[in-house]
Amino acid sequence: MTVKEITPVVLCGGAGTRLWPLSRKGFPKQFIPVYRGKSLLELTFERLSSFGGILALSGEEHRFFVEEAAEKSEVNLTQILEPVARDTAPAMALAACHARQENPESILLFCPADHFIPDNDLFREMVLEAADYAKDGNIVTFGVHPASPSTAYGYIETGDEVGPGVRKSKKFLEKPDLETAMAFLSSGKHLWNAGIFLVRADVLADAIARFEPQTFDACSEAIASAQRDGHFLRPGGRFKDSVAKSIDYAVMERAENVLVAPFQGVWSDVGSWNAMSDLGTKLPNGNCVLGVEENVRMISSENTVVHGTDRRLIVTLGTKDLVVIDTPDALLVSSLAEVEAIKNVVGDLVAQNHGQALEHRRVARPWGDYDSIDHSDRYQVKRITVKPGAQLSLQRHHHRAEHWIVVKGSALVTCDDKKFLLGENQSTYIPVGAVHRMENPGKIPLELIEVQSGSYLGEDDIERIDDVYGRIPE
């Protein structure tokens, strides 16, 4: 079997709250450059590029981030946009129903978007070695031999061997306590669950139809009524009737044809700051630096992890077993022993309506991004960056006026019936209610300072009239 006979499917969901404040719901860890200037999603696309066309499951909120990562990785991508988040079983059901329309026996390789697997060649060889088992009608998952009694991963208990290193799956197990994890490690029968699956489209569809008929019916009808929009496929409204459930609970724990192949090489789900530190620059005395390294100084420190930014200098003096994660609008300081509890803290922050729990100060958009520099009751200042050739929607605001000052590049501005070009150090005024648009006609990023003033400055005070990114509600 060749790689071209296998279709990779990348699952792009997940909020990454265990890596707060760097990862947040609005811009989760799979999109953040964390390794040599690349995001985990870019690395995933590069790892799968030799297989040919890639299918991705994502949502409306993140679809342009996924598309941008695909462009950087130079892969051919089709995105299925889930109308609502429903966990991995419904997402994988959509992919299986879509794929079997063209070839029921096509082999699908399901991969999370946010795992770190550095050896692309070894990964490809591992998948090809397991492909015949999938072709014969088995559901193949990959188990990682545990290097420690980790309580951060789910486990798979393996049974009888059916081929070189390949065993039957006996039981899928939740994240254990330390005592149980130590027992798993010593047993030799328990592997970390890597969340990677290799299966024929018809086999997976039949399994979901058998064990989760409501989900199968909803996903099958949603794909049958899906609307295509360029590289995007929008399933029909029946998808909302699917049951939110992981694929482990829905199928893997119940099916009799699940096999476990050994994962080969280095693997991490980058699911915590302890795991993220493995991707950083190692320093003496067990220290590690992430992010902007030149802004971090560590003096007489031991086992300290620091994430730096370009905003300020961070100095640790005499620290030990500490995590310091700096971002422009939130700072996390935690002991290494307690940092795994950050997910619960984020839940509390959401309940208390802290905006930093979900959104960054810097907000990514399909045309570029904006950074909220300063704000008060009646004004807000943003630094806006527009990609070359990109444009914002044609829009109006009912409660605020705006001043734009170009500091880099050039801007093509539409304001009511006028259209004009602004260069560096030039500015313009957009009155309340004016129909306006900003475009970057140049070859370099456009940067400008926007000063908003008015009685209401919320992001929902935008009436879009025309938008190349399809963001106008029907």
Automatic annotation (TrEMBL):
Domain MannoseP isomerase/GMP-like beta-helix residue range list: 298-349
Gene3D superfamilies hit by this protein: Jelly Rolls, Spore Coat Polysaccharide Biosynthesis Protein SpsA, Chain A
EC number(s) recorded for this UniProt protein: 2.7.7.13
CDD domains in UniProt: cupin_PMI_typeII_C, GDP-M1P_Guanylyltransferase
One Gene Ontology term from the biological process aspect of the record: polysaccharide biosynthetic process
GO molecular function, one term: mannose-1-phosphate guanylyltransferase (GTP) activity
Catalytic activity, as annotated: alpha-D-mannose 1-phosphate + GTP + H(+) = GDP-alpha-D-mannose + diphosphate
Pfam families on file: ManC_GMP_beta-helix, MannoseP_isomer, NTP_transferase
Protein keywords: GTP-binding, Nucleotide-binding, Nucleotidyltransferase, Transferase
PANTHER family, per database record: MANNOSE-1-PHOSPHATE GUANYLYLTRANSFERASE
Family: Belongs to the mannose-6-phosphate isomerase type 2 family.
Protein name listed in UniProt: mannose-1-phosphate guanylyltransferase
Gene behind this protein: cpsB
